[in-house]
Write a structure and sequence with these properties.
Order of helices and strands: HHHEEHEEEH
Structural class: alpha+beta
Helix content: 55-70%
Mean pLDDT: 86
Largest sheet: 5 strands, antiparallel
Strand order of the largest sheet: 2-1-5-4-3
CATH superfamily of the domain at 35-180: PAS domain
């Protein structure tokens, strides 16, 4: 079989190598993309959860000032709201606070929602997102909720995944989320790097075949 390959015409060798490498790298690209996508989503969700947990701890610190520094509850709440309102991470991602009855306590991007009942608010798919957030906290300490919500500066709803956690002392729910397309853009950038690498390897393989 080795002799048969050596006796093949140069063009046939190159075509055979190119075809084999194309099939191999197509399979590898699909596998790597799926594995990387899953890993990235897991990491992003975990990061969002950890940030919400940390922000909840920040709210608890403000709450503790009532007993430690003699602040009134109103003062402690205002301290917490001001601190959380200015927090940002990632692509200008933010934190919001609602209560367990779905009243918006503080939304840094849509302040017009503050103090308003959001229990009947639904996304374009008819999902009662705020009720789902409250339900996620009723079942346990917190949880993830998928829904559609516009990005800052836009009115077009986009798929979003939010983690919410309850702060029972004040009947609050702290939440933050990531947009699906932000993760997809990162995946696309990573895929471009993988494809470029695969093309370079294929060219190297073809040059090797040229020399056989």
């Amino acid at each position: 079989m080795a002799n048969a390959f050596k006796n093949m015409k140069l063009s046939a060798k190159i075509m055979a190598f190119a075809a084999a490498m194309a099939v191999f790298f197509t399979v590898m690209l699909v596998y790597l993309y799926k594995q990387t996508e899953q890993s990235m989503w897991t990491a992003k969700r975990q990061q969002t959860k950890e940030l919400v947990v940390s922000t909840t701890a920040l709210v608890k610190h403000a709450h503790d000032q009532i007993s430690e520094k003699g602040l009134s509850e109103a003062q402690a709440k205002q301290m917490a709201l001001e601190a959380v309102k200015d927090l940002r991470y990632g692509n200008d991602d933010y934190f919001f606070i609602m209560d367990t009855k779905c009243n918006m306590v503080m939304h840094p991007i849509k302040p017009e929602l503050d103090g308003k009942d959001q229990s009947e608010e639904k996304d374009p798919n008819g999902k009662p997102l705020f009720k789902d957030m409250a339900a996620a906290c009723e079942k346990g300490d917190g949880g993830f909720v998928d829904y559609m919500w516009p990005k800052a500066g836009s009115t077009a709803p986009q798929p979003k995944v939010t983690y919410v956690q309850a702060f029972t002392e004040w009947d609050w729910i702290i939440g933050s989320g990531i947009y699906v397309d932000d993760v997809q853009k990162q995946m696309a950038a990573m895929l471009r790097v993988i494809v470029i690498g695969a093309v370079i390897i294929m060219i190297a393989a073809m040059l090797l075949a040229w020399g056989l």
